[in-house]
Amino acid sequence: MTNNASAPETAGELRAGVVGLGMIGAAVATNLAAAGFSPTVFDVREDAYTQVPGVESQAKTPLEVAEASDVVLIAVVNAEQARDVLIGENGLLTGEVRGLTIVLLSTVSVPAVKELAALCAEHDATLLDAGVTQAGGNKLVVMLGGPPEAADAIEPVLRTFTRAIVHCGPLGAGMVAKLARNAMTYGHWAVVREAVSLAVAGGVEPARLLEVMKAASDGGPTPDLQLRLQVEQGGLSPEVVAHTTALSQKDLAAAQEFAGANNLETPIIDAVRPRMKDTIAGNYGTPLPDDRWDRGLAMIQRVYGDQLPDFVRDDAVPFVTDTVENLFGTVWARGNLSMRDRRLLALGATTMLGRQDLLETQLRGALGNGEFTLAQLREMEYFLNYYTSVENGSAVIAVIEKLVAEGAVS
What order do you get walking across the sheet with 40-42 strand by strand? Predict the structure, then answer.
């Protein structure tokens, strides 16, 4: 369901309740009351209802809300509070009410959503997860996850306080959509911080940079531009991708060079530069195969490119199987650390071993992915020379200088 809410319609037979009258919950209850739903509300603050126009009293417990409602919207701070609302003393699920639809407006982890949904199912209640964001005018954008039939059944309630309702998919999808949306928002903030640090280091006042951005805003890039191009236009042509990628590499390389000369950290630029072609082309990444052998081979391709020989599965050679399935299909393929993070760890460990052959393999893979600039390689030489002994540090220098002489460093 995707709905750009227009005039709200009345409840009909639906009765609505709200638990939690903070900023989000109060807005929800206010809109429900204005639309004629007369919501039953509860908050741990006994006088919280006095801040909600159209609501003249509040229930003494969440259970009272459940008994007076068909749909209950939970707007508390975290999963622990949501759990207490459901099964704590006089919680929503502690009575004899069955068939309740519960909408979780709180931002919690996806595993927490599934845990809370399981608690609801044990009591013949249905949970919908609803990521929300402010949309102005005391209205919200709601990103729903869960059974579509349950979402459709309570749409009249949702429409009272929303500017748009987007059914994102199965249980947990609403929360994932909220997390992805916030990642774009906060990621953009982080990029701004990094960009301003470059400007200040070059003697440019933030006010002057803001002036430039305002003047260039019409038709210029926005945080969601790439997503809009991909969804609305099917992405960019290969020619435009190639041209824009070349420009991005040139500009980001210059930014890295300036940052390095001024002792500035630019972790976002360092992370995104190797991925700019895929970013511009709208390639969001291909999931690794489920089969461990195939997953390992795909990961080897990502780590080393085409420089290593093909691995052939042979049960008589367990070392090869173990390397492909465990080292690459499991260890390298895990989350939490980026490819570049793991590469740096591998380079540090390999330097301690004094193995120039392994160092060369790792560095060729890194350079093939565009993970390091020449200045960063030189910095690695300098840094590792202090931590791994002069002899081992010399091995790093020898490998890097060999790759530089070959022109392998772009």
Answer: 2-4, 162-169, 139-145, 126-136, 101-104, 71-74, 16-19, 40-42
Q: Token pair of 290, please?
A: 């489920």
Q: What is the CATH topology of the domain spanning 179-281?
A: N-(1-d-carboxylethyl)-l-norvaline Dehydrogenase; domain 2 (1.10.1040)
CA atoms within 13 A on the CB side of 389: 9
- Dist. CA 362–CA 273, nearest whole Å: 19
Q: What is the residue extent of each domain of the chain? A: 2-171, 179-281, 292-406
Domain at 2-171: CATH architecture: 3-Layer(aba) Sandwich (3.40)
Share of the chain above pLDDT 70, in %: 95
Q: What is the rounded CA–CA span in Å between residue 51 and residue 74?
A: 17
Q: Which token pair is 391?
A: 């002899």
pLDDT at position 220 is: 66
* Separation in Å, CA 173 to CA 116, 132, 147, 187, 196: 14, 12, 11, 20, 34
Q: Exposed (0-12), middle (13-18) or buried (19+): which is 253, by Cβ within 10 Å? A: middle
Per CATH, is 292-406 categorized as 1.20.1290.10?
A: yes
